[in-house]
Structures are given as C-alpha cells and as structure tokens.
Amino acid sequence: MGYQSLIYTLSITLSVTFITYNLLISSNAPLRTEFPTHHLHMDPIIQKPTDHRRRSSKEDSKERRLFHTAVTAMDSVYSTWQTRVMYYWFKRFKDLPGSDMGGFTRILHSGKPDRHMEEIPTFVAKPLPAGMDRGFIVLNRPYAFVQWLEKADIPEDYIFMAEPDHIIVKPIPNLSKDGLAAAFPFFYIDPKRFETILRKFFPVERGPISDIDPIGNSPVIIEKAKLKKIAPTWMNVSLEMKKDPEADKAFGWVLEMYGYAIASALHNIGNILFKDFMIQPPWDLEVGKKFIIHYTYGCDYDMKGRGTPGKIGEWRFDKRSYTVKPPPRNLTLPPPGVPESVVTLVKMVNEATANIPDWEA
C-alpha cells in the first residue's frame, strides 16, 4: 500500500506541474481540472436555480446584463449561517430597480448535500483530494469553481463571485464594462512589494508586475466566458504557490487571492478597481454608496461607543464568536456613538435571522 500511495502522490504532483506549465504559457487554455476523471465519479447535485426573469415589461424593452451570484461555502455551522444571511439579503434586493442580479448558487465544496439544499440553490462540488490543500481549506474554492463552470447550466453571461460574509445593502448593477471585470481593490494585496516571489508564477515576458491587480476573486463581476479561462489557472497557480515555501510564507491566508490576481493577469483580463463595491467595518465608518458590507473584522467598543481594536470590547460583534452555533436572534445593538456601518451590519443580521425559518435549530 505504501508503494502505491507514493506512486499516486507522484503522479498527482507531476500532473499538477504539467498542467500549470501549460496554463502559464497559454492564455487560451481550455477549462479542465488537473485530476483524473475518476476523482469526479459523483455527479454534482444541482438545485433548481432561482428565477431570473426580468422584473417588468418596461424593463424587458431594455437589454440587461444579468449576472449570476456564486458563493463558495463549507457545510460547517460557521459558514452556513453566514450564507443563509447572505442569501436572505440577495432575495430582498434581487428584483428591485437598479438590480442586474440574476440567479444564485451556493457552491458547496464538502462533496455531499446538507440540510439546506431546499432553502438555498446549491451545487455540490468535490473537495480537493486528501492532503492536497496542505491544511489551507480555501484552496478548495478555485477547484469548486472549476467544477461548477464545467458542469452547471448557468443562463447568465456574467458571474458575481461573492462570499458568505457579504451582506448586500442595495441592488447591485452590473459594474463591469468595456470588457473589463469589476473588482474591489484590497490594500493588503501589493504585487509590487512581492515582485521577486510573484515572478515565479508571472514571468517577466508576460508583462510588468503592475499588470497584476490588487484584487482577490471576490467581490468580482466578470464575464462567464472569461472566468472559464481564469478558473483552472487560478486553481493551479494557487496550488503551486502553496507548495512553494517562500510564497506560502509571504502570502499566508491571502495566497489564493494572489492566485486569482495572477491568473487574471496571465489571461490579460483587466479589472475596474471599484472602491465603492463594499465596506469593511469597523474601519469603514459609513455605508454611503457601497453595495456590500464585508464583516471579516471583529467590531469591539466600550459602552461609550469608543473602539477598542485588538481588545475584546464591552460590546462586540465578531463572526468568529459563532463558529459552533449561529448568532442568536435579536442581537443587542451597539451603544450610541458606534459608526453607522457597524449599526447597519447588526440590524441587517437581526432582520435576516428574524425572518429565516428554523434559524436557531
């Protein structure tokens, strides 16, 4: 068994390396995975997508560029409650004026259905083979997108890649234009700072390092055909970066985000860096014209409304407080003086949990 396991591991490694090389030198690489087809013997389970008919006869007279919202998720309590809240607000804004929001899919990369299949339109993707993620579960995200794009019937011509901890705060139009995707620029994605490392995956002959945009795969609105080109490269580059000790150490938890940015550049797909795409409380204080609240950071305050960053506050909201059970309904609102962005976040979580059936079960 030990010899067979060694041969299997070597064959997978060589296969990944070979396909990565081909993807790096060809901007028109076909959509494919790097694994033998017997790893995909279970057909994915696809729920009926949400209805994406146009909202009125008046709007029918105008050509709309609908996008399909896709959220990758695990089957953990932590990931599931966030996705349920996210889907609640998607439905609230989907058909309002100004929206180009079409269908919705939760891409569940657990390899098996869960109890929320009837509640949320879901595609079940296989996780990476055991050990290939090297303990970094986020690497399942690009692999899940590859499977979904290969197998699912996606009527829309555009894809909006979102995450469970996104709350939509208003109808989202198709922000991409002129052949460019629309993406949020992250201050901590800094290709110039890591040029020496990134050149291992984005060779000098492919262009200046500035061609790599400071983005991740989410939030991004992109043409479906272009995402089909990017997805396998995103997957393979991310896997190769994780195997590279220098890249793994430099990029840590944002490694897969760099993988997507590199893949976009390798395929010459540019991005509109759309700062108004979302806010991230508590650092962003007002919702303003933004479309999404991304609650990735903990929000801690004393009872006078003063922030206590790095210290658990007398009042706090942190998604990581709810890893084994969902947040209760009717969370206590922040004290006076707390920024509007945080107040809005908690109110929207409360409204969702109050209206989602069987919430605390």
UniProtKB/TrEMBL annotation:
It is a single-pass membrane protein. Keywords: Glycosyltransferase, Membrane, Transferase, Transmembrane, Transmembrane helix. InterPro entries: HPAT-like, HPAT/SRGT1-like. The chain crosses the membrane at residues 6-25. Residues 67-360 form the Hydroxyproline O-arabinosyltransferase-like domain. This is Hydroxyproline O-arabinosyltransferase-like domain-containing protein. GO terms for molecular function: glycosyltransferase activity. Pfam families: HPAT. GO terms for cellular component: membrane.
